Amino acid sequence: MSVPSNRNEPERLHPTVMAMVVARDFEDGFVVNLGVGLPLECANAMPPGREILLHSELGLLGFGPVIGDHTKADPYVTMVGNLPVEALPGMVFLSHDESFAMIRGKHLDVCVLGGLQVDVEGNLANTQFEGKPAGNLGGAPDLAYGAKQTVVMMHHTTTDGTPKVVTRCTLPLTAPRCVSRLVTDVGVFDIRGGQIILRECAPGWTPEQIQGITEARLVIPNDIREVRLM
Predict the structure, then answer these.
(1) 98 catalytic residue (yes or no)
(2) Which listed residue (27, 41, 51, 57) is catalytic?
(3) Within a domain: residue 8?
(4) pTM assigned to the model
């Protein structure tokens, strides 16, 4: 589901397009974990011609796209969120401890997590809204630390327009200083050295417009470009 656009701003990226932007950087042979929420869109956006091994902390490695027709689903082949997925040739089942041993042993190349807030230090908050009961952390802290690269995929603002890319997270942290790349519905950002660098803008968006809906101060490089899918 997309965040509604203000009538005075350009159209924001659809979650399917956001997933394509995230997945375009998966290299052949990568082991990738997809978190619950928006990141699950990436399961159906794998770049053609590359073998990407999708990992689930529930105990799957090497599964395929999400199955939309539940009559064709195998109830034993599901990923986080209890979504049924396609069993690809060579897919393996793992015990829960084996699955987390992969995470904690740093055998994941990338994990893609959703976010409620991300700040300039790469801190991530993605489990508990302000004033709400604590959410279920699940495997998020392990994934954020255990993967070689942590990518956050989220809407740039809340539905009421509150910025989610902030100077300092105010929500309880899932993991500190873990995020290296951020993909939102208005752009692509790298986080390093206490700075958020705007790399790509969604079509129709200018860096100034993106800064206008961002609390944190963005770094705008000279080689900034429009979002590409390849």
Answers:
(1) no
(2) 57
(3) no
(4) 0.92
